[in-house]
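Subject: sequence -> structure tokens, single chain

Hey, anyone have a minute? Need the predicted structure for the following. Not urgent.
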Amino acid sequence: MKNKFSIVLILLVLMGIPDSHSLVDPILAPHKFNILSWELKNLFGRSFQPVTNDFCLSPTHRLFASQDEGLSKASLDETNRFFTQILEYEIRKNGFETVFPPVKFIIQSPPKLVIFSPRDKIKLEQTILLNPEVTYEQTIALEEILEVKTRKSVLVETLGGLAVYPSIISNTDYVPYVLNTAAHEWIHHRLFISPLGRRYFSNGFMKELNESVAQLAGNELGNKALLAISWCSENEVDLIKNDDASVSRMVLQNIRKEAETMLRSGEIREAEDYMEKQRLLLKREGYDIRKLNQAYFAFHEMYGDSPASISDTYEHLVNIRAQVGDLKSFIEVVGSIKNENDFKELVLQY
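Reply:
Had a minute. Here:
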């Protein structure tokens, strides 16, 4: 049954991903990520055996294995197996009688994503997966060529994860990120057996709703799994400085609103110049966005808790989640949504 579901899931994913436009096919063909080849290589790989070692978190949220001679950095294989176990444990604790589909992910470099938006408005028109090996120099060159060919706003982003089966999770040793991303992708897997998940590719709103549900529920699961891991003693591990900067939601929202005002007035070049100037100002303040354009905002709009999103979808989901018992019940409630009108009616009920 497990393998059968996996195959069905792959077919749903493959059928939902739109083909690239003929203008860009010759440009992207050497770099495109082949989902089918990846699935065939990884779907029927070895199953993980339960881990027996004890693990703990360093003060900077890195995973260490406890051994007779002391602490050692957990291997990638150990990390993968341990996170699978604790996520499945938390899923059962949150109302799911069985973990279906099974939690299955691989920690490695995820694919990159080409994002297309019109230049005269912020709208996600098309996305195409690229191999993770695409270099920074190739990224810049591809964006420039594609913008000339399509006359669109183009951005190449590195994904944090991808909900193929098994899912791909970015190779980082920062435990909260890995757990939340793995949980996020499992929620996508779970939603594929519901009307909401099967309609992921039907339109932009359903993509946004799916991603917002996965973000909200995935963060809840991931954060609970994190709490299940004990802490290492501070003097047993070296501290690793974390220089991650963050930007406030209001800052990016204001930039987007100002840019959209210009776009609606037909001031396309002015809006693009404005976004670039704002990007440079943010960089001086420590928040480094490589490229800030229409495609950037169109992509991040799908994630309701992203600072770049101006949608209220995520806030409505937070309200619904607060009034529904366990996580399984929440997934069942939102999983029944078939279109935007269904969502609006659900919002009125809560």
